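Q: What would this complex look like in 3D?
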Amino acid sequence: MSLLKNLSRLDYLLLVLGLLSNGGKEIVSSRTKLMKIMYLLQKENNMLVEELTGSKEPYVFDWYLFGPFSVDVLNDLDKLSQEGLVDIVLEEKETYIQYNYMLTRAGRERFQKILKEVDKRIIYSLENYLSKYKQMSASQIKRLVYRKYLSEIELSS
Amino acid sequence: MIFYGITRAIFNSYYGRFLDLARKLNIEELLTELNERIRGLAYRDILTVVSKDTEMIINNAIKSRDPKIVIEIVDKIKKGLWKPPQEFDDAVRSYESGVKALAFLESLYYSANNKEWFLKKVITPAAIPIVGILLVYSIAMNPNDIIMISLTTFILSIIIGILVVYPPESYRRYASKAVAALEKIRRVKKGENYYERCINIIKGELGEFVEES
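A: Here is my prediction, written as C-alpha cells for the whole assembly.
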C-alpha cells in the first residue's frame, strides 16, 4: 500500500512533529533542533520525503552563517499554531527564548489521521530515522550538520 | 648548499602546500574581503531572525486583539529586557566564530610567511658561516675520520634546520585543516554567495579551534 495522495507541507511537518513527540505525548523542544532535523531529513532521506510529499525538497533551505535555515519551516509552524494543531510553548532560557512545540488535541487527531493515510513502511522508516536525532541536543545536531554537510553544500552550487 | 637544501626541504614539508595554496588564492586580499563581508552577512542573518520575531509579536497582538501587547513588548525591547529567540544567539555566535576562524587562518598564514622570510633573509646568507662552524665542530669531534666529519655535519645540519623552521604548536595542529579549507575554497566557483561559502568552509574546517578558543 502506498500513499493515496501526497501530504501537504503542513501535514508533513505535523507528521514529523507527531513522531518526534511520541504521538503528541511529549513536547518537541527547540525550534533550532527541529529546523536542523527537517534539513537532515531532506538531505539524507530525500526518497522518503518525496514519497511523502511528492517533492524531494518541500522546504527550501538557505545557508546562513549559522547553518541551514528555512523561513518556510517557521511560517508553517506558525500556520499549524494558527490552525490550532500545535501549541507554541515558550521556554525562557538565560539569554534567549526557546520555542518548543506541543501537539494540541486537534493536532493529535490530525496526526492519527495522517498515520492512517500513509504506508506503514514509510512511517516505520521515518520513525526509525528520526529516533537517531530525537535524543540529541540542538547543539549536537548543529555540529553534526555543520561538519557533515557544510563542504558538500558549499561546493555544489 | 646541502644545509640550505635540507632546511628548505623541512620548510616545504611544513609550509609548502599551505603557502602555495594561499598564494594561488591571493589570500591576503581574500581574507580582507571576507572580513568585510562577514559583517554584512551577519547583519542579514540577524535581520532575518529579528524580522521573523517581529512578525510573531504582531501576529500575537492581532490574535489577541490587544495592541497593548505590542506596546508592552516595544517597551521591553527599549529597556533591553526582551529576550530574543534562540536563532538570534546562533546568528551572533556564528558571526563571532566566523571572525575568529578568519583571524586564525590569517595568523597561520603570517606564521608561515614569517618563517619563509626568516629562511630567505636570515638563513640563506648565514648558511655558509653556519656550515663552517658545524664543520669545524665536526673536525674537532672526529679529527681523523672524514666519514664521521661529513656525517656529523650532515646530522647537525638537519637538527639546526628543524629548529629553524619548526612551526608553532597551533600551526602544527591546524595546518592540515587550513590546507583542506584552502583546497575547498579553490574549488568554489566565483558567483552568488562566494564569500559566504568561503567563510563557511573556513569555519567548518577550523571549527575545532574556534570551539576551543
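A: To summarize the key features: Chain B is about 85% helix and 0% strand. Residues 23 and 136 of chain B are 40 Å apart (CA to CA).
Q: Very helpful, thank you.
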